[in-house]
Design brief:
By secondary structure, this protein is an alpha/beta fold. The protein has helices spanning 4-11, 84-103, 115-119, 123-134, 143-155, 195-202, 210-233, 248-258, 275-286, 290-294, 301-321, 333-344, 351-355, 358-369, 374-390, 401-412, 424-434, 442-453, 465-468, 473-491, 526-533, 536-543; strands at 23-24, 27-28, 33-41, 46-54, 59-68, 108-113, 139-140, 165-170, 175-180, 185-191, 242-246, 272-274, 325-328, 500-508, 511-518, 546-551.
Length: 553
C-alpha cells in the first residue's frame, strides 16, 4: 500500500509531493528497483514481459516484451493431447525467454499456463518436462484464476473511477468475462470458447458461408449465456458498466478500426470503438479470404486464420451485454502476474491502493525517467494549481477536468531540458506525447503534452503539429487556458531555491492582479516580477486580460 504521504499526494495533486528518501533528483536509486519477468503460456501465443518494479513508488515499468506464436491449441484431433510439434515449439520458446530474462538479471520468473495446457491430458507431463529441462516452474492456473490475473493487469493501467467495468479477454481456448470495480472483482468467469478452439472445431470453409456463421454465432451465444447472466445479476440498479476488451484479437480489430481515423492513435490502450464501427470491421473480415486478411497491416499470418472466430466472439458478447462502446486495454494477464508478484511480496497491500492513484504514479514515474528536478516541478505544479483555483471564471472556464491535466503538465513541463535547453518545450511535447501515461485517455494524453508545449515562447498556431493533434475546439480551448496558467507558474520559479512562498490572485473581467509573497521577509523578488511582467503581452493577446504584478511589502 502507498505510504500515508504518497496516498495524500495521490488524492490531492495540489499538495506538493516530497521526493522519496530512496530517490534523488537524477533518477531512482538502484536499491529500490527490483526486476521480475512474467511468461504467459497461452493457447495461440507465449508472451514474455520483463518489468522493473519501483518499490518506493509502488509501480512498474515494462523493460522488454516478446511474443512467439507457439500454437499449443493445435492439439491431436483424436486424443486431445498437446502434439509433440506444439510442445517442442513451446519448449524452444521458453528456453529463449528464460535466457532473455536471465540477461536482464531478474530475481524471479513467474509463469502461468492457461486453457490449452490445463485441458490437455498430457498438460501436466509437459509442465514437468519444462521444470526438469529448463528449471522453470509453471503455475497451471484455473479459469477463475486466469480471470483474476487479467483483472489485476487491466487494473494496473486503467482508472476505474466509481464505475464498474466489464473486462472481456478473448483467448485462443477460452474467453474470460469479469465484472469488477476499483476495489474488487464482483464476478470472475471463464468460458471454453476461444478463437483457436472455434477455428479448429467449426471453421471448415473460409470465408465462412452464411449458414456456418449463423451456427457459430448461436454456439458462441449459448456458450457465453451463463457468464453473461452471472455478471448481469451482480450489476447494481442504475449502474452502467464500461466494457473493456483486451487480447490479440481485440487489439487487431481495434487497429483496423483506428486505421480509418483521420489521425490514428499512436497507442491503442484506451482507444474507444463503437459497436457500429466494430460491426463494419467484422463484416469486412468475414467476407475476406485468409490471404486477403494477411494483406491487412495489423494482422499477421497466424492471426489472419483465427481472427474471424475471435471477432464473432467480440461482436456477439457486445450484443448480449447491450454495450454500445468498448475501450481497449493493452494490459492483461502478463501484467497481472507482475501485480500479483508485487502483492505477494508486500509492495502493495491491496488492489485499491494500486488503482486509486494510477495517474499520479505514472506521471511521477515519467518525472524520474526523464531526470526532471522533481522538487522544482512540484513547486511549479503547486503555483499552477493555486492560480487555477483563484482565477476560475476569468482565466479559465474549466469545470474540473483541466486541473488534473494542468498538474501532470506542470510536473513534466521541463522534461525536455536534458535534450535542448533553448527549445525544451518542444522536446517536452515530444517526450510526453510518445511516453506512457497510464490512466489517461488518448485525448487527455495529447492535452497534457500540448499544455507543456505552450507554457513558454509562442502561442499556439494552426500549423503546429501539437495543435493539429487536438481533436476538438473544446480541447484546444482547455489547452490554451491551462498553458497560460502554467506559463505564469513557471515564471515564478526562476531560481534553484524557492523564493516565492505563494501567490495571491485577484481578478476582474479584464484584469489579473498577482501579489507574490516571499519565503522570507524583505526577500528580493525582482527577478520573478520581471519574469511575470514578460508574460503580460502574451496573457493579454490570448485572454484579453491585463496582468499586474506586485510583491508583498
Amino acid at each position: 500500500m502507498l505510504d500515508a504521504e504518497t496516498t495524500a499526494q495521490a488524492s490531492d495533486p495540489a499538495r506538493p509531493a516530497r521526493p522519496s528518501p530512496d530517490a534523488n533528483i537524477e533518477g531512482v536509486q538502484r536499491d529500490q528497483l527490483r526486476r521480475v519477468a512474467a511468461i504467459d503460456i497461452g493457447t495461440n501465443s507465449t508472451h514474455l514481459l520483463v518489468a522493473s518494479v519501483d518499490t518506493a513508488l509502488r509501480t512498474f515499468r515494462i523493460i522488454q516484451a516478446e511474443k512467439s506464436t507457439t500454437r499449443l491449441g493445435e492439439r491431436d484431433p483424436d486424443t486431445g493431447e498437446l502434439t509433440e510439434a506444439a510442445m517442442q515449439r513451446g519448449y524452444d520458446t521458453l528456453r529463449r525467454f528464460r535466457d532473455l530474462a536471465t540477461s536482464h538479471q531478474v530475481e524471479q520468473l513467474v509463469t502461468a499456463a492457461t486453457s490449452a495446457v490445463r485441458e490437455a491430458s498430457n498438460g501436466r507431463d509437459y509442465l514437468q518436462q519444462i521444470k526438469d529441462g529448463l528449471g522453470i516452474e509453471v503455475d497451471l492456473v484455473s479459469g477463475s484464476e486466469e480471470a483474476r490475473l487479467i483483472y489485476l493487469g487491466v487494473l494496473s493501467g486503467m482508472p476505474f473511477g466509481n464505475r464498474p467495468h466489464l473486462l472481456l479477454d478473448i483467448g485462443g481456448g477460452s474467453t474470460e468475462l469479469i465484472l469488477a470495480d476499483g476495489r474488487d472483482a464482483r464476478a470472475l468467469t471463464s468460458t471454453r470458447v476461444g478463437a483457436v478452439r472455434l477455428q479448429r472445431d467449426f471453421v471448415k470453409d473460409d470465408p465462412i458461408p452464411p449458414r456456418g456463421r449463423a451456427f457459430l454465432q448461436a454456439f458462441i451465444q449459448g456458450s457465453l449465456e451463463p457468464a453473461v447472466d452471472k455478471v448481469r445479476r451482480r450489476i447494481q440498479p442504475g449502474e452502467v458498466p464500461v466494457l473493456v476488451a483486451t487480447s490479440g484479437t481485440a487489439m487487431a480489430i481495434g487497429a483496423l478500426a483506428a486505421s480509418e481515423d483521420d489521425r490514428p492513435p499512436l497507442k491503442l490502450h484506451g482507444y474507444r470503438m463503437s459497436r457500429q464501427r466494430l460491426d463494419r470491421v467484422v463484416e469486412k473480415l468475414v467476407g475476406m479470404s485468409p490471404e486477403q486478411r494477411r494483406q491487412l497491416a495489423p494482422i499477421n499470418e497466424r492471426r489472419a486464420e483465427i481472427i474471424v472466430p475471435g471477432a464473432l466472439i467480440l461482436q456477439t458478447t457486445m450484443q448480449m451485454l447491450g454495450a454500445e462502446e468498448l475501450v481497449l486495454s493493452e494490459r492483461a494477464l502478463r501484467e497481472g502476474l507482475i501485480v500479483d508478484w508485487m502483492l505477494r511480496h508486500g509492495f502493495l497491500e491491496d488492489r485499491f491502493s494500486f488503482q486509486s492513484s494510477i495517474r499520479q504514479r505514472t506521471v511521477i514515474h515519467q518525472v524520474q525517467r526523464f531526470a526532471v528536478n522533481q522538487t522544482r516541478a512540484e513547486r511549479v505544479a503547486s503555483h499552477a494549481l493555486s492560480l487555477y483555483d483563484q482565477t476560475r471564471g476569468v482565466m479559465h472556464q474549466d469545470p474540473g477536468q483541466g486541473r488534473e491535466l494542468l498538474w501532470a503538465a506542470a510536473m513534466l513541463h521541463a522534461c525536455g531540458q536534458h535534450i535542448n535547453l533553448s527549445a525544451y518545450h518542444k522536446h517536452s511535447w515530444y517526450l510526453i506525447r510518445h511516453g506512457e501515461l497510464l490512466g489517461y485517455s488518448e485525448a487527455e494524453h495529447l492535452m497534457v503534452a500540448a499544455i507543456a508545449r505552450y507554457h513558454r515562447r509562442s502561442l499556439p498556431k494552426k500549423r503546429h503539429e501539437s495543435w493539429q493533434a487536438l481533436d476538438t475546439r473544446e480541447n484546444r480551448r482547455l489547452v490554451n487556458e491551462m498553458a497560460l496558467l502554467l506559463r505564469l507558474a513557471a515564471a515564478m520559479d526562476r531560481r534553484p531555491e524557492p523564493v516565492v512562498a505563494f501567490v495571491r490572485a485577484e481578478t476582474t473581467p479584464t484584469e489579473l492582479r498577482l501579489e507574490l509573497v516571499p519565503e522570507r521577509l524583505n526577500q528580493n523578488l525582482s527577478l520573478e516580477q520581471w519574469s511575470l511582467d514578460n508574460c503580460a503581452e502574451v496573457i493579454r493577446e490570448a485572454s484579453g486580460v491585463r496582468l499586474v504584478v506586485s510583491v508583498q511589502g
